[in-house]
Amino acid sequence: DMLLIDTAAGIADQVSRMLMLADRVVIVTWPDPTALVDAYATLKVSRRRRPDQSIGLIVNGVGNGDEAGRVHARLSAAANRFLGQGVDLDGFITRDEALADATRRQVSVVSTTPLSSASRCFERVALTLTARLKARRHISGERCASGETLANLVH
What distance in Å separates the CA atoms of residue 52 and residue 3, rounded to the nearest whole number? Predict the structure, then answer.
């Protein structure tokens, strides 16, 4: 099973604790400089607390896969240089008017426009994350990576 938790942006204490407990962290960022600085800060905190942690990146709001690849390459190069380990590219979501419209209407873009560019990107990301989970299948149990239960985290 996979549980995706959308945390607040930044590295507040609660966010940092959630990241530390995860078997895998997926950082979602935009290609603008401010978002990349925030993504790097999150990556840095995760790497410092759990150097062995699996970390992925999803780049949102890009024109195409090439742009996502360039964003990933910059972030991963900085992480390799300063933290000793890069980050996996788990996928990207393209700029798409169908996604903007679905967001305004508060509906799922995959349900309302399944053939849109953004919908196809979400499906590819889901397949990538599922494949990564299957590859790490040996990690199991009810406890989080740190040994703390999720119930203890919430209290």
Answer: 20
